[in-house]
Amino acid sequence: MRQVSKDNITDVFMGYFGPDTDPRLKEILQCLVTHLHAFARETKLTHEEWRKGIAFLEWAGEISDEARHEFVLLSDVLGLSSLVDMLHSHPDGTSSSVLGPFHIAGSPALPVGGDLRKDFKGEILLAEGTVRDLEGNPIEGAEIDIWQTAPNGLYSSQDPDQDTYSFHGLQTTGEDGRYAFTTVKPVSYTVPSDGPVGDILRASGRHPWRPSHLHYIVKAPGFRTLVTELFPDDDPYLDEDTVFGVREDLVMTYVKQPAGSFPQAGFELSGQVDGPWLQAAFDLVLVRE
What we know:
Number of helices: 6
Radius of gyration: 23 Å
Distance between the termini: 48 Å
Order of helices and strands: HHHHHEEEEEEHEEEEEEE
Number of strands: 13
Largest sheet: 6 strands, mixed
Strand content: 15-25%
């Protein structure tokens, strides 16, 4: 048996793989352990620090449930989620951005021109655009999973006073590739800071704020699925998003529209909007598989 020392333990680990090990799994584990061992050597990691790290991970597991994914949040605030997004974004398509820990599958159907606002009060926003390919052709049958926080800064999965699918909708484009819906203007909000991720932020002197945004997951046959977010250019946290989600091409502009100018047809709220409102136009560009 080969004796293990602090100088050769990494090399010894590299030999602990059978001939049938999946090559990609072997590559990832070997690289991971190489960097972990280098980290421990560089920092001269102590037993107490190692124990605190293990306790941190155990706490992240304990606080997670179907509605809260603390490990996803940890990945977000460490910049890992965004780095993976950027590594695999196509330069000519719409950039991807973080999924976040509060997405809920199975959103109800939302017709083109439908309303997410329901009974919530707030400044009305009309968001619209076209789902298209790299050549500018509209994509028919694209599914857009849309969600956002309520005006109180909470997602429905965080807030017992909201319905399960509050501010969630699934819209399908027609042959013109168009999507359109109304909602209330999203607000800036803080990521959950009552758990281990909050401790990391406070210990680092970082704030927990995210700029306001709309979430989209866009799927279409023959195209790569796009997970992204859209951010208004006037948000105070645009340049200091705690999860590093903002990309230059994901920044949009809210255009203020005067009272009495809301479209009188084609929207669920047509005929119901008397005051000023906001409009945001943004095309979503998908890349073929």
